[in-house]
Amino acid sequence: MKLEKIVVYSAFIVLLLAFGITSFAQTPRFPRFKVLAFFNKRVEQAHVEFANDAIKFFKELTIGNGFVFDTTSSMADLNDAKLKDYQLVMMLNDFPHNKAQQESFQRYMENGGGWYGFHVAAYNDNGTNWPWLLDFLGGGVFYRNNWPPMPAKLVVDDPNHPVNKGLPATFISPINEWYQWKPSPRERKNIKVLVTLSPDNYPFGLKDIVPDGDFPVVWTNTNYRMIYMNMGHGTRIFSDATQCKLIIDALRWVIEIDKKGNVFLR
Ligand code: ZN
């Protein structure tokens, strides 16, 4: 082989190797993150139906091993040893049951853990007696709800927030039982409301009627890596493409703001 040819071939091989190493460095690591979803099979039927649909929906998103979606119906799994492997705790239709679980959850969140809560996950009343949770959720105690469950017109509060990007200014959310909170979490400086029930719905309900008032339905407490979504009742929650986009973008956002780094950029 002539010397020039050897030089050309060698240069080619070096280029190939360099390209290979660079590509390897840029190959995303899969799975990118781990979610642990808590659900309860022994609660209101419509809340069980929602949890079943949610598990199916999120499991389908893991196709390709993009992330791990583990589920448990045992609240005893809410402990430090179990949570340390997860970037997100999802509460589909339940909340911590006892002091040990409450304290473990608080430690997890105060150390940068992620939370995605639906519907009854934020339920609290005068008997809840867990001031930290009330503060975490923005200070709102359950006030009243519409009945029967029905669709609602929702208003997107901040179209530039990553959770809301690409959503229309308003949309009709499928059938849900909607909870109103008092005082409204919006009154807190560290609460960022992302989606609100439109006043166009008032009077809202037939048997139980919400006549008026501020009615946030999706928000985040900016002191934590968390998002709350009031949807979570019955079998229609995942039936609307706009709402599904919101649900996915909320998951993505809570993961990407992790102080340990944005896994989607690796
Ligand atoms: Zn409900």
Textual characterization of the structure:
With 266 residues, this protein is an alpha/beta fold. Helices cover 30% and strands 23% of the residues. It is globular and about 90 Å long. Bound molecules: zinc ion. Residues 46-47, 119-120, 177, 233 line the site of zinc ion (ZN).
State the major sheet: 9 strands, mixed
Briefly note the CATH topology name of the domain at 14-139 and 215-265: Rossmann fold
CATH class of the domain at 14-139 and 215-265: Alpha Beta
Q: Write the H/E string, N to C.
A: HEHEHEHEHEEEEEEEH
Average pLDDT reading: 93
- Helical region count? 6
Helicity level, as a percent range?
A: 25-40%
**Shape by Cα distribution:** globular
Beta-strand content estimate: 15-25%
Judged by helices, strands and strand pairing, the structural class is alpha/beta
Question: What's this entry about, in short?
Answer:
By secondary structure, the chain is of the alpha/beta class. Helices cover 30% and strands 23% of the residues. The chain has a domain at 14-139 and 215-265: Class I glutamine amidotransferase (GATase) domain (Rossmann fold), CATH 3.40.50.
Using brief descriptors, characterize the structure shown.
single chain, 266 residues, alpha/beta, Rossmann fold, nine-stranded mixed beta sheet, two-stranded antiparallel sheet, 23% strand, globular, binds zinc ion
Question: Strands, helices and their partners?
Answer:
Blueprint: H1 3-26, E1 34-38, H2 45-61, E2 68-72, H3 80-83, E3 88-91, H4 99-110, E4 114-118, H5 131-136, E5 141-145, E6 150-156, E7 170-176, E8 179-182, E9 191-197, E10 216-221, E11 225-229, H6 241-256
Parallel strand pairs: 1-2, 1-3, 3-4, 4-11
Antiparallel strand pairs: 5-8, 6-7, 6-9, 9-10, 10-11
The chain binds zinc ion.
